[in-house]
Amino acid sequence: MKWKPRNLREFAQMVVGDAEHFHYRSSKYITEFFEDCDLEYVHQGETRSIWAAEKIAEILAMPSASPIAMPDPFVHVIRRLLDRSEGVNDDAERSLALASLNTVLAREGWSAFYDEHGIGQIKHIATNTIAQIANPHRPFTPSELQRRDQLIGYLNRCSEDELIEDVLIPLFRQLGFHRITAAGHKDKALEYGKDVWMKYTLPTLHVLYFGIQAKKGKLDASGISTRNVAEIYTQLTMMLGHEIFDPETSRRVLVDHAFIVAGGEITKQARNWIGNKLDASKRSQVMFMDRDDILNLFVVTNLPLPKGALPPTSSWDMEDVSF
């Protein structure tokens, strides 16, 4: 990601405090600013704003998940820059600082804002995608655990179509997938094993196509549950073997990878059963996502809960349910 020199200069002036509404930082405090962002940049007497602009350019050039995603270190910089504990004069809420920052960010297609916890965030204006430091395996805050429990209650009650429309499509859109198309369940003949298909653009601008086969409940491969997994396998082979039409390019393409998504647990036996049925080439195309994956990703990407995801009213809602 490359910014225009003017925008780099103005952003760097905010970092070092040569801009109104931002704290002035001497050499020592510029180094500490970047240390707080987990960056090993040490200022050694160079012209402050020019040096900071060079470092910001390096950060923006770091790898990111997609062309519309910010590198994680830049998200750290935004959050540090908008720290509300550093209000200047009459700008304790940092509203003036935020407006100044957004003047620069808007020229590059981005916008900063404060979330409900008062933490600075940045989003891509055209796609409304929020740049997140999404580590689904990190410890959750109490408020995040509460949201996770509310989503568990919703997954216990929702239908398969609601799982797709209210949970999976917003989640994958937030993760950078685009042209997300749900087949729905009204016309089974047109699904060809896919509940959803979508595209993902790599940093090299190559495009990969993905299909999703979603099931509401638990996927197992023991006893009567094997019928459920066998159905998934049939739909999976249809998904990988049938072309889809991409209206953006006016051509038919095959799905590159397939997600098997379950609103409940996907047991080890089910994963192995499907893996043993597929040949080696197709096994590399298949990925699994179960309830824990959905919950963790939904929480760390800070997505709004679906309508109807109310706080759990009993211990029953707090537990995973086997279907």
Description:
The chain contains 11 helices and 10 strands. The protein is an alpha+beta fold and 323 residues long. The chain has 2 domains: 5-131, no CATH class; 142-300, Restriction Endonuclease. The strands form 3 sheets. It has a 5-stranded mixed sheet, with helices on both faces. Strands 1-2-3 form a 3-stranded antiparallel sheet. A hairpin with a 5-residue loop joins strand 1 (110-114) and strand 2 (120-124). It is elongated, with a radius of gyration of 23 Å. Residues 185-191 and 312-323 have low confidence and may be disordered. This is Restriction endonuclease.
Spatial shape: elongated
Number of strands: 10
What CATH architecture label of the largest domain applies? 3-Layer(aba) Sandwich
Question: Main beta sheet: strand number and arrangement?
Answer: 5 strands, mixed
Q: Indicate the radius of gyration in whole angstroms.
A: 23 Å
Mean pLDDT score? 83
Instruction: Find the CATH topology of the largest domain.
Output: Restriction Endonuclease
Order of helices and strands: HHHHHEEEHHEEEHEEEHHEH
What is the helix tally? Answer: 11
- Our estimate of the beta-strand percent is 15-25%
- Supply the number of structural domains: 2
Structural class: alpha+beta
In which range does the helix fraction lie?
25-40%
Spatial order of the strands forming the largest sheet: 4-5-6-9-10
From the N-terminal CA to the C-terminal CA, the straight-line distance is 46 Å
Q: Indicate the low-confidence ranges by residue numbers.
A: 185-191, 312-323
CATH class of the largest domain: Alpha Beta
Q: What is the subunit organization of this protein?
A: single chain
